[in-house]
Amino acid sequence: MGAFLDKPKMEKHNAHGEGNGLRFGLSSMQGWRVEMEDAHTAVIGLPHGLERWSFFAVYDGHAGSQVARYCCEHLLEHITSNPDFGGGGGGGDGGTDEDPSVESVKSGIRTGFLQIDDHMRQISEKKHGGADRSGSTAVGVMISPRHVYFINCGDSRGLLSRGGAVHFFTQDHKPSNPLEKERIQNAGGSVMIQRVNGSLAVSRALGDFDYKCVHGKGPTEQLVSPEPEVYAIERSDTEDEFIVLACDGIWDVMANEELCDFVRSRLEVTDDLERVCNEIVDTCLYKGSRDNMSVVLVCFGGAPKVSPDAVKREAELDKYLESRVEEILKKHGEEGVPDLVHVMRMLASESIPNLPPGGELARFSYIPNKSDKSITTD
């Protein structure tokens, strides 16, 4: 945790799909970190009779990737198969004999988190003698025909854009939050430099069993709690636009409104959700993120559509920036090839119209290399 590479690994893992009136795309990139510790889940059509339900999640691992990887493969089953979740009839969530009610879903999600955490502890003790010290945050959404259930444990974040604005976002679980700090202190711990016992930067997580061994305290009363916060939001067929789930490597450099504005502007240019997610990740890398980066974008029917005018403006902007890069390269020809940072700084000093909101010039960080492959990225 905390080790960095000499150069960022910019290769990306992508996926996309559609169903149940939804479209999704995702992107993940190792970036500057020595190891890729993020993981994700994207499932349209859930088991146990919930074919019209969908589930998406991002897991941000730390001190190893074991917990994040296990959760991406098994958390959903722990949630939907436990008795607290209720039955599944493939319909809505209004509390009929077959369909789980809102409260049953929320209870089942909570139970699923506690179950998988206990299960992973047992695996760690049996296979590794308790030596697995990895942990992971988790942020996700379970989407039913009537509701969106936001699920959060840690400092990854999810948000809903509705009617052209941020309608909802999850709250980060930080040790300095008053309620989190109270629990930590009641368990005999302390909050120093905004970390649990001066070490861990999140107050809720799956795994991290070194922080869950206070005798006489239940699983949700430990220094680090595996309990998620679950929020149920009624869907709006006419106004719901999209959901973004991302790890803190994204949110560290882009505020909620910035990212929503950026996504909205990109959806007016392309309907390729993988491309939009890749542009989010690249933009955050240029903005200075040093962490692993993962983002899942889920679009409803009300998401912005491609606009011919926006596509035209984008093409004109691309052409203008390419010409400016060529001018910069010619000007510096006698001094040697400038690096990418120098080129981008020169462009940033200019007043350039029609840059996308949120990303601004960072969105176009690929253009210098496109114009001249000899530009260095050191």
Automatic annotation (TrEMBL):
<feature type="region of interest" description="Disordered">
    <location>
        <begin position="83"/>
        <end position="104"/>
    </location>
</feature>
<feature type="compositionally biased region" description="Gly residues">
    <location>
        <begin position="85"/>
        <end position="94"/>
    </location>
</feature>
<keyword id="KW-0464">Manganese</keyword>
<keyword id="KW-0904">Protein phosphatase</keyword>
<protein>
    <recommendedName>
        <fullName>Protein phosphatase 1B</fullName>
        <ecNumber>3.1.3.16</ecNumber>
    </recommendedName>
</protein>
<keyword id="KW-0479">Metal-binding</keyword>
<dbReference type="GO" id="GO:0000287">
    <property type="term" value="F:magnesium ion binding"/>
</dbReference>
<keyword id="KW-0449">Lipoprotein</keyword>
<dbReference type="InterPro" id="IPR015655">
    <property type="entry name" value="PP2C"/>
</dbReference>
<keyword id="KW-0597">Phosphoprotein</keyword>
<dbReference type="Pfam" id="PF07830">
    <property type="entry name" value="PP2C_C"/>
</dbReference>
<comment type="similarity">
    <text>Belongs to the PP2C family.</text>
</comment>
<dbReference type="GO" id="GO:0030145">
    <property type="term" value="F:manganese ion binding"/>
</dbReference>
<dbReference type="InterPro" id="IPR036457">
    <property type="entry name" value="PPM-type-like_dom_sf"/>
</dbReference>
<dbReference type="GO" id="GO:0005829">
    <property type="term" value="C:cytosol"/>
</dbReference>
<feature type="domain" description="PPM-type phosphatase">
    <location>
        <begin position="23"/>
        <end position="300"/>
    </location>
</feature>
<dbReference type="InterPro" id="IPR036580">
    <property type="entry name" value="PP2C_C_sf"/>
</dbReference>
<keyword id="KW-0378">Hydrolase</keyword>
<dbReference type="InterPro" id="IPR012911">
    <property type="entry name" value="PP2C_C"/>
</dbReference>
<dbReference type="GO" id="GO:0016020">
    <property type="term" value="C:membrane"/>
</dbReference>
<keyword id="KW-1017">Isopeptide bond</keyword>
<dbReference type="Pfam" id="PF00481">
    <property type="entry name" value="PP2C"/>
</dbReference>
<comment type="subunit">
    <text>Monomer. Interacts with PAK6. Interacts with the phosphorylated form of IKBKB/IKKB.</text>
</comment>
<keyword id="KW-0460">Magnesium</keyword>
<dbReference type="InterPro" id="IPR001932">
    <property type="entry name" value="PPM-type_phosphatase-like_dom"/>
</dbReference>
<dbReference type="GO" id="GO:0004722">
    <property type="term" value="F:protein serine/threonine phosphatase activity"/>
</dbReference>
<keyword id="KW-0832">Ubl conjugation</keyword>
<dbReference type="InterPro" id="IPR000222">
    <property type="entry name" value="PP2C_BS"/>
</dbReference>
<keyword id="KW-0519">Myristate</keyword>
<keyword id="KW-0963">Cytoplasm</keyword>
<keyword id="KW-0472">Membrane</keyword>
